[in-house]
């Protein structure tokens, strides 16, 4: 699904100032876009607004033909009708359910053979077929992440939201998993918004990157070009600092 976000703004009731200021984003179907920023930049708030967990004060969010929210007339599509897939930092797997049952949880509306076929398709996609009957505590962090991704992709979401999905992985495992994750998302054809503070994660996983700082978009562009430009800028800043010292 294509995504159109226009003039999005948000403020907490008791906070001074605007948390998100005039956020705009247009995505093509199947595109992966990273929102990159430090802690407190507002990147996770953008995801919460898209998911319907917060209501913007201004702006419009449209995914495909569905208008999720239109701040001008206070129209807001209920969370359960948005058809979103989400992967959280802690994966949020049900500990009392097997791998297969966790994935099936998102397929409650699917019936009979179609439901079973979709489960097998997702297990194959994330290379977890042999772990179907295991429980989350019997899996590694990388395996848990794969199950969380399979559960999110299973109902064919209009939009996939990833909130710092690598934060609980060590450096070696993260490098391996992020390459696999991009391949799996691209194979599934899921339009995806990925929130991270890690520039390398954004470079490897995404097609485009948005730099967010204090709720404002500072830069946006193709991931390789923009992050390389940012790297050179950081190196120049370090060189100037050394010269001044």
TrEMBL record:
Q: Which residues form the ABC transporter domain?
A: 3-239
InterPro entries recorded for this chain?
Answer: AAA+_ATPase, ABC_SmlMolc_Importer, ABC_transporter-like_ATP-bd, ABC_transporter-like_CS, ABC_transpr_FbpC, P-loop_NTPase
Q: Which UniProt keywords apply?
A: ATP-binding, Cell inner membrane, Cell membrane, Ion transport, Iron, Iron transport, Membrane, Nucleotide-binding, Translocase, Transport
Which SMART domains does the record match to this protein? AAA (SM00382)
Q: What is its EC number?
A: 7.6.2.9
Q: Which GO terms describe its molecular function?
A: ABC-type ferric iron transporter activity; ABC-type quaternary ammonium compound transporting activity; ATP binding; ATP hydrolysis activity
Taxonomic superkingdom:
Bacteria
Q: Which CDD domains match?
A: ABC_Carb_Solutes_like
Summary of subunit composition and partner proteins: The complex is composed of two ATP-binding proteins (OpuCA), two transmembrane proteins (OpuCB and OpuCD) and a solute-binding protein (OpuCC).
> What name does this protein carry?
Carnitine transport ATP-binding protein OpuCA
- Record organism: Sinobaca qinghaiensis
